[in-house]
Amino acid sequence: MGSDFEAKPIASSTAAASSGYGLATAPVADLDPPPQQPVVKKGRTNTPWTAKEEQTLKQMRDAGNSWSEIAKTFPHRTEGSVKKHWYKDMHYAEFGEDESAALLAAIKEYDANKWKVIGTKVGKPAKACESYAKEHFGGKL
């Protein structure tokens, strides 16, 4: 039994793609993405804030600058970390006269190293209490 169909060899993959036999493939070099510069991201630094940075942050925030404008001043900190520091550690750092007196009494009642307990008693974050106390009561502690 003979067949009328005769297989013909294909000379190249280009011929296979153009003839409809097989899959069309591009050369590997054409599939590689163009070289790109590495993206520099601001990562987690866990770097403590300096007094100068906090002063700059406070001045800019008091002047009404947006968070994005403020964050540009701190190239190694993200906008989120700047906002978090403000609201968690600095925003509550302004104490009224009664809060100031309560804080000083709590410091005397508890050990100066118990900022978490002191903050709970006064109703302020521990870091804010510690910063305020050191700035305003430094010689009285």
What proportion of the residues form beta strands (DSSP E)? under 5%
> Poorly predicted ranges (pLDDT <50, ≥5 residues)?
none
SSE pattern: HHHHHHHH
User: Describe the biggest sheet?
Assistant: none
Q: Give the helix proportion (percent range).
A: 40-55%
> What is the approximate shape?
elongated
Cα(first) to Cα(last) distance is: 109 Å
User: Count the helices. How many?
Assistant: 8
Radius of gyration: 33 Å
Extended strand count: 0
SS-based class: mainly alpha
Whole-number mean pLDDT:
76
Q: TL;DR?
A:
By secondary structure, the chain is an all-alpha fold. The protein contains eight helices and no strands.
Describe this structure as you would to a colleague:
By secondary structure, this protein is mainly alpha-helical. It has a domain at about 95-135. The chain is about 50% helix and about 0% strand. The protein contains eight helices and no strands. It has helices at about 15-20, 30, 50-60, 65-70, 80-90, 95-110, 115-120, 125-135. Helix 6 (about 95-110) packs antiparallel against helix 7 and helix 7 crosses helix 8 (about 125-135). The radius of gyration is 33 Å and the shape is elongated. The N and C termini lie far apart (about 110 Å). The model has no long low-confidence stretch (mean pLDDT about 75). InterPro entries: Homeodomain-like_sf (IPR009057), Myb_dom (IPR017930), MYB_TF (IPR050560), SANT/Myb (IPR001005). GO terms for molecular function: DNA-binding transcription factor activity, RNA polymerase II-specific; RNA polymerase II cis-regulatory region sequence-specific DNA binding.
